[in-house]
Write a structure and sequence with these properties.
Layout lengths: L1 E5 L2 E5 L9 H8 L5 H9 L4 E2 L2 E2 L11 E4 L20 H7 L1 E4 L3 E6 L31 E2 L8 E7 L2 H12 L4 E9 L6 E5 L2 E6 L5 E5 L8 E10 L3 E8 L6 H8 L29 E9 L5 E5 L4 H10 L14
Length: 333
């Protein structure tokens, strides 16, 4: 990190290893003493600038850009934040869930119910446990994408800042094939197809919970391809979904818009026992990030797979579904 100082104001040049991350993440990395609230105040007041221009916390920085940083007061230490211990066995469980590990990339099979990042009501999350997944690396692994709390499956981490930037870029450029398995209530009319329906946030509850709905005027583009892998009459379907965009709750909202919500989706769908479904069907969201094919930040490509969680496997057995592991949606390139 190269910088010059004038009257307490620093001009810091963004280095290659920090390229293409959000400005707020850059500050979390280099100035952890600066709270997010204070960062937003400085940005709104124009005291923090990017290449001399006003910036927002979500702007992405590029190598060679210059960040203007005013004097930053240290965070008060009279009320230190209390460390929150992870539930017993969670760290070891996460280590056992690692499906790939090399010097640049770590991938794990996230269990349902575990948040990826923290929030106002979330104290235990993957991001808070990453120190335990550093192993022999010199840096703490970094998140490069997210999964919903109740969605299980592949979560990829960069083990260096440079690797994380390249992995994140492959997601943004849509050079990553993401395949999800889902059990739907009902059967789509077409055996395979594309769901091209724009989505917009319709409500945020008092706890900040987002809800999405199809909105042809205000919605952002959202595209999902799918293939029906197996069915039980017209009542239940096992499908493989491939999101081509990355909107919040995209797969859940798209499946609901087809009239075939994901089993166990209490926000957009139904619970086991509803709509004539057998009560023996396991509770829990039946959406699993099963496969990722993407460029490796070093060379070549990664082709990763994660087995579904117990509740998903139990429901597959109940309905007699075979594994759709060999089912792909579109090209893997």
């Amino acid at each position: 990190m190269n910088d010059t100082v004038s009257s307490g104001v620093r001009q810091v040049t963004v280095e290659v290893d920090d390229a293409d991350i959000r400005l707020d993440r850059w500050f979390r990395r280099h100035h952890p003493e600066l709270t997010h609230g204070r960062l937003e105040q400085l940005l709104r007041g124009g005291q923090i600038r990017l290449d001399g221009k006003r910036a927002k916390s979500g702007d992405r920085v590029a190598a060679g850009q210059v960040i203007r940083i005013p004097p930053i007061a240290a965070r008060p230490v009279d009320k230190p934040r209390r460390a929150i211990a992870a539930p017993a066995g969670l760290v070891e469980d996460l280590k056992a869930r690692i499906v790939h590990r090399d010097p640049l990339v770590l991938a794990l099979n996230k269990p349902p119910g575990l948040a990826v990042q923290g929030g106002s009501r979330t104290s235990v999350h993957v991001d808070g446990l990453l120190d335990a997944l550093q192993f022999e690396a010199k840096e703490r692994p970094r998140l490069v994408h997210r999964l919903d709390r109740d969605t299980s499956g592949l979560l990829v981490l960069g083990r260096t800042s440079g690797a994380a930037a390249k992995l994140a870029e492959s997601f943004r450029r849509r050079d990553t094939m993401k395949l999800y398995w889902a059990i739907l209530v009902g059967v789509p009319k077409a055996e395979k197809g594309r769901i091209d329906l724009p989505l917009a946030k319709t409500a945020v509850g008092r706890h900040g919970r987002e809800s999405m709905a199809v909105d042809h005027e205000e919605g952002d583009d959202a595209v999902t391809d799918y293939v029906v892998a197996d069915t039980v009459g017209k009542h239940v379907a096992l499908v493989v979904l491939r999101p081509l965009t990355g909107r919040t709750h995209q797969l859940r909202a798209h499946c609901a818009a087809l009239g075939t919500p994901i089993l166990g989706d209490t926000k957009y769908g139904v619970r086991p026992g509803d709509e004539g479904l057998p009560e023996e069907a396991e509770a829990g969201l039946h959406l699993h990030a099963a496969r990722l094919v993407m460029p490796h930040p070093g060379s070549g490509r990664l082709d990763l797979f994660a087995e579904p969680p117990p509740h998903f496997r139990s429901t597959m057995k109940l309905y007699g579904f075979s594994s759709p592991r060999d089912v792909t949606v579109g090209s893997t390139r």
